[in-house]
Amino acid sequence: MKKEHIFTPVPKSSFNKIKCAECNEEQIVYSHNTIEVMCNSCGNVLAKTRGTKSRIHGKISESTQ
Ligand SMILES: [Zn+2]
């Protein structure tokens, strides 16, 4: 895979690729998202917002800073 530098305006933010524990479907979740993230295929909750940082329920397979 080609390595790319993604410019992010907020330095502390990151994107996590989370693998669903139920069906192994991967989804990109923003670390500072304000909504609940659910799996596209089975509806399992992958991340929940708690304060300013989201809580990850699935497995993080990749993280981009
Ligand atoms: Zn799923």
Please tell me about this protein's structure:
This protein has 65 residues and is mainly β. The protein has a single domain (15-64), classed as N-terminal domain of TfIIb. Helix content is 0%, strand content 43%. It has strands at residues 15-19, 26-30, 37-38, 45-50, 53-56, 59-64. Strands 2-1-6 form a 3-stranded antiparallel β-sheet, with no helix packed on it. A 3-stranded antiparallel β-sheet has the order 3-4-5, with no helix packed on it. A hairpin with a 6-residue loop joins β1 (15-19) and β2. The radius of gyration is 12 Å and the shape is flat. The mean pLDDT is 78. Bound molecules: zinc ion. Zinc ion (ZN) binds at residues 20, 22-23, 25, 39, 41-42, 44.
Radius of gyration: 12 Å
Percent helix among the residues? under 10%
- SSE order, as H and E? EEEEEE
Bound molecules: zinc ion
Number of strands: 6
Which spans have pLDDT < 50 for at least 5 consecutive residues?
none
Q: What is the mean pLDDT?
A: 78
The shape, in one word, is flat
Would you identify the CATH H-level superfamily? Ribosomal protein S27
Q: How many distinct domains?
A: 1
- How many DSSP helices? 0
Strand order of the largest sheet: 2-1-6
End-to-end Cα distance, whole Å, is 17 Å
CATH topology: N-terminal domain of TfIIb
Instruction: Report strand %.
Output: 35-45%
